[in-house]
Amino acid sequence: MKFSVCLMNIDNIEVKYMYLKRKFIKIINSLLLLLLMLFVFLPNVMAESKENPRIATVNFQPIWGNKQANLDKMIKMTRQAADNGADLILFPEMCLTGYAMEQDSSIKRIDRMQVKLAENFDGESAKAMAKVAKEKGIYIVYGYPEKIGTNPLNIYNSAVAISSKGEILGSYRKVHPFGSEVIWAKTGTEPFIFDTPWGKFGISICYDTYNYPELSRYYAAKGCKVILNPTATSWGYYSAEDLKDSQPLNDGKPFNGNNKAWVNRFKNRIEAVTTQSGIFVVSADLVGAEKKSDGTFMGTAFPGGSCVVGPTDDKKGTMEYISYYGTNPETAIDEGIVYSEINLNNAKRNSFSNYIKTDLQEGNLYQPSLYVNWYKDLEKDYKSLY
Question: What DSSP element (H or E) covers 227?
Answer without folding.
Answer: strand 226-231
